[in-house]
Amino acid sequence: MDKVCVLGLGYIGLPTASVLATHGYSVIGVDVKDKLINQLRNGYVHIQEPGLKTMVQAGINSGNLIVADKPAAADAFIITVPTPIKPDKRAELSYVESAARSIVPYLQPGNLIVLESTVPPGTTAGMFAAILQESGLNPWQDLYVVHSPERVLPGRILEELVSNDRVIGGLTPKAARKAHTLYASFVQGEIYLSDATTAEMVKLMENTYRDVNIALANEFALVAEALGTNVWQAIEIANRHPRVNILKPGPGVGGHCIAVDPWFLVQAAPGPSQLIASARRLNDRMPEHVVEKLGALMTGIENPRVAALGLSYKSNVDDMRESPALTVIRWLQATGCEVRAYDPHIKDSELNIVVESIEEAVTDADCVILLTDHSDFNDLDPFDLGQMMRRQILLDTRNGLPHQRWKSAGFDVHILGDGNKLAVWRESLPNLELVGE
């Protein structure tokens, strides 16, 4: 295999194409967005990812990476297009269908076709294989068809593409071994071979495990608020048990994986997936809870103004896919709040509530709400910010700010998951250090 065609130049496709180009493959990267293709050809990389811009430019300058708006003949095809969720919580597979049909005219016997896009179990052996068969070739006999899901974390994509373990599920054992040859050329982690449906389920299980864990943490936060205790301290102590690892609560769950993938399992097997569906609904409910909590803090304030800090779904990245911060903001606007949002990592946004500076966000605001715990926000000076505001209220949904500093600046500080009653007795425990203080 010398020539690889990568379809979809987003958060996974572009890094994958770049890594393959640096490992000596002749790569054609395909995307349907003309603006994106022109940007890449002119040296602009639309994704903030350490080292990616250098690698993309090196691939293009060497001639090993070519970007185009349609596929070409190749030895291997890798499909990395999005699979978002529909309003009815079912997978939107139209992008996968379109990508598969776009390569049908170029397929030749012996081609390797890899579906990396996350899909409901049974998709590779079902809909995907059926489309490939429109070429007149048998996906089980004439082609090597596999599912090999990406398993990387935004902010560390290039590193984890190489270092993480990989699962490859083939329609046939020969197909899995064929794909192993390609991935072994750059993957340093272990590579596990399986059937396609197992590989599809592995990816979904990994993200569902985390979603259920976060749902448990969020439910603990709601319980702590009801009981008047601090969930952050409780989690920190509980996690000292050698077999306990509770994740962090927050304003919801975002990203293209954890907030979406569990629904694919529910879609494929709705009967037995009751816990999965319940956890997903609880996490989807958290933005509304945050808005209710904020509304209670601003009762009686006319024409309330809110400064929202953070738009991305996790800290220190520019990825806003399925971000709960956006849901919180939409809910706030629906209740009549004026919202101005600031995120140092979001450089190109069409949202009309986004401002370019923290000062612009907080001026004349009644409340600051932390929605994403970017490390940049730790350096904010609450004394200066407070002077620009009408009222000094802080709601920290991530437990990500130095609360004592904000209290010293005169802010009325509230934290998601803190019942705010520990102050009654904490002075009797002088060695107690609350998380986030």
What can you see in these coordinates?
The structure is a single chain. By secondary structure, this protein is an alpha/beta fold. The protein has 2 domains: 3-195, Rossmann fold, CATH 3.40.50; 250-416, Rossmann fold (3-Layer(aba) Sandwich). 38% of the residues lie in helices and 13% in strands. The protein contains 15 helices and 13 strands. It has helices at residues 13-22, 34-41, 52-62, 94-103, 124-132, 157-163, 173-183, 196-227, 231-238, 261-268, 274-297, 324-334, 358-362, 382-388, 403-408; strands spanning 3-7, 26-30, 65-68, 76-79, 112-115, 144-147, 166-170, 191-195, 305-309, 338-342, 367-370, 393-396, 412-415. Helix 7 (173-183) links the parallel strand 7 (166-170) and strand 8 (191-195). Helix 1 (13-22) packs across helix 3 (52-62). The model is unreliable at 423-427 (pLDDT under 50).
Name some characteristics of this structure.
single chain, 437 residues, alpha/beta, Rossmann fold, eight-stranded mixed sheet, five-stranded parallel sheet, globular
Describe the structure concisely for a colleague.
The chain is an alpha/beta fold and about 425 residues long.
